[in-house]
Here is the input.
Amino acid sequence: MQKAGGSADQPHPLFGGALSAVIPHSAADISELREIPDNQEVFAHAHTDQSLIVELVEYQAQVADQDAVRYHFEDIAGSNKALEPGTFEVTSVVALPKPELSLSECSSAWMLTGTQCVSKFNEEARNTVTLHLGLLRLPQFSTDVLITFNDPQSISPDSSSASAVGTHKQPWTVQEFQRFLQTLTLHNPGLFG
Here is the structure.
């Protein structure tokens, strides 16, 4: 399987080069393995069950900037069937300082950390996953750029992911996720057209 990205500091093209960012080491481009929706880029760690998803979603004008990342977190929880009480929790929401971001076009940027108890492939087994969400708001393009870093914490022995446990070769870190957010750069606004 081809690894995405070259050297550690080299930006990786996203969405046909319309965006780019420095992606974490050992990232495999999932679009080479299966069909990915046009509004997503998905990378998986080659040795752990971690994944990184970049998604272009509709800008939610009715949601205040400081609430938008929580809105998307709850939307993901709904998709993951993790909306029952006790199956999801937000632990922090912070604003990302714009001067630290390459994506100068964004009106505001946020990072949320939370957990969800999710099952893969509709299995009964549920895994506890820490989600780090980055949200870069682009109201002028009617787009929110949502970046999700899925970092499984406890894997049920009955999960199809159980085989990945114990093979944690240099898992991705929150710092690598933050670097991705900080280096995300827009090259072609036509992407949002």
